Structures are given as structure tokens and as C-alpha cells.
Amino acid sequence: MAEGLESLESCLEQYIPPEDLAEVKRILYGGEARKLDLPAAALSAAQERDFELQGYGFEAAPEQLRRPRIVRVGLVQNKIPLPTETAVAVQVAALHRRIEEIVEVAAVCGVNIVCFQEAWTMPFAFCTREKLPWTEFAESAEDGPTTKFCQELAKKYNMVVVSPILERDEIHGGTLWNAAVVISNSGAVLGKSRKNHIPRVGDFNESTYYMEGNTGHPVFQTQFGTIAVNICYGRHHPLNWLMFSMNGAEIIFNPSATIGSLSESLWPIEARNAAIANHCFTCPINRVGTEYYKNAFTSGDGGKAHHDLGHFYGSSYVAAPDGSRTPGLSRTQDGLLVVEMDLNLCRQVSDKWNFKMTGRYEMYADKLTEAVQPYFIPNIIKE
Ligand SMILES: NC(=O)NCCC(=O)O
């Protein structure tokens, strides 16, 4: 699929009459997000380094007993800088360099927590079903070169780093996982969260490489707020978001790799709905560009063999618990989205809408326990 539009927002800005634009944004986005005044040095560095930089802020009402809890998150989306046939170590090094120059700008913008895209150290090569060389991109979550690289960034910039990688778990026979490593701003590895739901759709042949994650729904207490990571396809599963929220997540990152023909109409809805339903902030991130492979592969649908998975459409954004959202980053360019949020908004919206209070979870817990039994009888009323 062609890259097409630069972004939905640029199209709206261009074609909606100025007198209607604010109302269109209110209806589509829950209002116009406050634009952050980002440092001139950051804006010029982004331009020089050829990535888009956008910044927005979400407000909360002042409270008497709690101070505002302001945090800045940074979402990074990027293309792979080198062709997929390049030597593995060279590709990884180039991605480290690219991320380093983006994170440096995030630091100038005062970002406290940064999150990269799914499997950020590699092409999203699982469509090929080939094992080599792709499995060579896997690394230890605890002390692999990428984790060490991120620990240095975290310490240097006093920033929490969420680093989604292909993990090799040496303790369990060298098995592979799709995991996000969470590194504290002290530089310590806080832990990891493995992808719970593995796609079996289109060319996303990830089950050839790794199984469903076994780390549950961990939430990480950081100096800047409680965070969780719901990796890519997990965003189609409302219960996955719910469990991260049940464990106390105020911000849920959703590092992804997904393509226009499959999911673009779902993208603006799912993470945003999860922010509303769970009274938290959600941060979906998607890679950009089209990645080509030397060996053609088929989709198992009788169609012709092809050399790419399709266009990754970027469009990373942040949704707030009140249902408002930022505009998305570009559909075609590397980018950094800086978003300031007052985490007090989570409880304020919870007290307004009461979804946690009215959720009737005990009713669903009982019924779901029944429904997963092999001899479950659905409750269908017949004439
Ligand atoms: N990476 C991944 O899980 N992609 C699946 C496709 C989608 O969820 O949109």
C-alpha cells in the first residue's frame, strides 16, 4: 500500500473551513489539546536530525489535598535506517544511534518517561517466517547490549526508558519472547512485561517465533507515576488493558507494529477507548515506513509472493482518561511526541464516571469462570 496521507490532522487543517475546525476537533478529539512550548534548541535539533517533534499538554483541575502530579512522556516512532539485508550488528548499532539522537531531544524537552516502538532494535521480520537472521536480534532483557544502552540513557537523562525488544531468555533454554524492558531513571532494570496476545492475522506470523507472554500484567512504580506496557496486538483485548489498570497503571504504553490495510481504522479507537474505560492515559506507538525483504513470502491466501508486509503508518498519539486525545504524529516520518499530563486527572475522571465503581466485576468474574469451562452452556433463551 502506498504511504498516502501525511497525517489525518494535516488533511483536516487543510480542508476544513477555519470557522468549523475547532468544532470538528471538539467532536473528533475531545477538544484542541494545549500545544506545548518546546525549547527552540529541541525544535531545531529535530529538524536537523530529520524527525517530527510535536508537544501537547493535558490539564487536570486543582485539588486541595494533592499537588498536581505533572509528568512528561515521550513517544518515539521511527523507520529502520538500513536495509534489512545489512549485517545484524550493523542494523542494531544504527538503530541505537538513531534512538540516541531522538532521546537527546526528548531530554531537552524535559521528558521523564520515554517509550520506543515494538521490537525497536530490528525490522519487523516475523512476516518472513524465516528464523535466521531474525532470531539473532534477540537479546537478554536483563543484561543484553540494548538494555545496557538504555540504562546509560536513563542515567544520563534521569529518564525512565521503556524498551520493547525481542528477548532471548537464556535461563529457560534460550526461548524467545516479545518483551518490554522497563528501566528506572536510576538506570536499574525495574523488570519486564511480555506480550500477552500473539497475532494470528495476515502476515503477522509472530507465533512462529514466540509464545504468549507469562509475566501477567505487571505495573511498574516509577518516580514519575505507575506505568504498564500492553504490547501491540494486546490493544485489541479490553481485558488486557483492564488488568493493567486493576494493578494500578496510570499510564499504559502500547508499543506496536501495524499496517494500514489491516488496522488503521481501529488505531484511533482502541487505545482511546481503553483510556476512557480504565480512567488512565494510554500511549499507542507505531513504527513508520515499508520494510523490504530479499526473499519473497506468501500470505497463505493464494495471492502472489511479495517482499514487504505493507506500510507501517506511524500516527502515534496519547489519549487521556476524559476521552480527549492529542493529534497523531506523521504517517510517514520518524517522530517524537512529547506529552505533558497531570496524573491527578485519572482519579478526577474516575470520580466523575465511576466505571471502576459500577463495573460489577464480580458478576463477570463468576460468569467468565463458567464460560471457559469445556462444557459451558451459553445462556440462550429460545421460544
Ligand atoms: N505486532 C502486532 O502484534 N501486530 C498485529 C497487528 C495489529 O495488531 O494491528
TrEMBL record:
Single biological process term from Gene Ontology: beta-alanine biosynthetic process via 3-ureidopropionate
Protein's cellular compartments: Cytoplasm
InterPro entries membership: Aliph_Amidase/BUP (IPR050345), C-N_Hydrolase (IPR003010), C-N_Hydrolase_sf (IPR036526)
GO cellular component: cytoplasm
Entry keyword Lyase: no
Keywords: Cytoplasm, Hydrolase, Phosphoprotein
Residue ranges annotated for the CN hydrolase domain, each copy included: 71-343
MF terms (GO), sorted A to Z: beta-ureidopropionase activity
EC assignment: 3.5.1.6
Pathway membership, UniProt: Amino-acid biosynthesis; beta-alanine biosynthesis
Pfam families: CN_hydrolase
Main location: cytoplasm
Domain of life of the native organism: Eukaryota
Keyword Amino-acid biosynthesis: no
Family: Belongs to the carbon-nitrogen hydrolase superfamily. BUP family.
Role: Catalyzes a late step in pyrimidine degradation. Converts N-carbamoyl-beta-alanine (3-ureidopropanoate) into beta-alanine, ammonia and carbon dioxide. Likewise, converts N-carbamoyl-beta-aminoisobutyrate (3-ureidoisobutyrate) into beta-aminoisobutyrate, ammonia and carbon dioxide.
Subunit note: Homodimer, homotetramer, homooctamer; can also form higher homooligomers.
Protein known as: Beta-ureidopropionase
The organism of origin for this protein: Pelecanus crispus (Dalmatian pelican)
